[in-house]
Design brief:
Elements (H helix, E strand, L loop, with lengths): L6 E6 L3 H13 L2 E7 L8 E2 L2 E5 L4 H7 L2 E4 L8 H12 L7 E2 L4 E2 L4 E2 L4 E2 L4 E2 L4 E2 L4 E2 L4 E2 L4 E2 L4 E2 L4 E2 L4 E2 L4 E2 L4 E2 L4 E2 L4 E2 L4 E2 L8 E2 L7
Parallel strand pairs: 1-2, 1-5, 2-4, 6-9, 7-10, 8-11, 9-12, 10-13, 11-14, 12-15, 13-16, 14-17, 15-18, 16-19, 17-20, 18-21, 19-22, 21-23
Antiparallel strand pairs: 3-4
Length: 213
């Protein structure tokens, strides 16, 4: 696709997750990244050849120049920063598209909410519903008929089996596995490598699995 007909988009963030977002956006090909929005001390620099063109306070002005945005700040456990940015962007008038890596797969019978990113090698199967502002990270598997709320992160290599319900603002760590039909409440933190075999009440924390003897 020619750059002249790509849609302009901002990436909000300038850290490691932003770099991964840039890679997905560039490979997917629908959008042309106009620049990045970052913290004040990060301005006047570049990330992967892209300029940092403003801070959060510039978002209302930038929305008139670039109507699309993607949150490029990661979510390790707590979702508050991504929730705040999502609210700022929507209030400023940005459209937050869902973006799917061409190296991932989303069934045409699944749905993705605004601002959700499906990364390389991830799979979202038929009947699944992913909410707004979610990350389905590299090689994660969301099986059929799963419901994931808003502002969730399904980390690298995690497996969410069929019929699982995941509440808003939940973090599922790398290589965690969730048993089919399990209900994970709002604001839960499922640590790396955990096997979740029963329901988790809201705000539960299952620590990272330690296999050391």
């Amino acid at each position: 696709m020619n750059d002249q007909i790509k849609k302009p988009i901002l990436v909000v963030g300038a850290g490691g997750h932003a770099r991964a977002c840039i890679d997905v956006i560039e490979l997917e090909g629908t959008y042309s990244i106009s620049g990045l929005v970052a913290l004040p001390h990060e301005t006047d620099s570049e990330i992967m050849g892209l300029p940092i063109i403003g801070t959060d306070s510039d978002l209302p002005k930038l929305s008139s120049q670039c109507p699309h945005a993607l949150i490029g700040v990661g979510q390790i456990k707590a979702a508050e920063i991504r929730v705040r940015l999502y609210q700022q962007l929507t209030q400023a008038g940005f459209e937050l598209p869902s973006i799917v890596s061409p190296l991932g797969y989303v069934s045409r019978h699944a749905t993705l909410g605004a601002g959700t990113l499906v990364m390389h090698g991830a799979i979202v199967n038929a009947g699944s519903m992913i909410g707004n502002n979610c990350i389905v990270n590299n090689q994660a598997l969301v099986e059929h008929d799963v419901k994931v709320g808003n502002h969730c992160h399904i980390s690298t290599g995690a497996v969410v089996n069929s019929g699982v319900v995941v509440g808003d603002q939940t973090f599922i760590g790398s290589n965690a596995a969730i048993r089919q039909e399990t209900v994970i409440g709002k604001g839960c933190v499922i640590g790396m490598g955990q096997a979740v075999l029963s329901n988790c009440p809201a705000n539960s924390t299952l620590p990272e699995k330690n296999n050391k003897r």
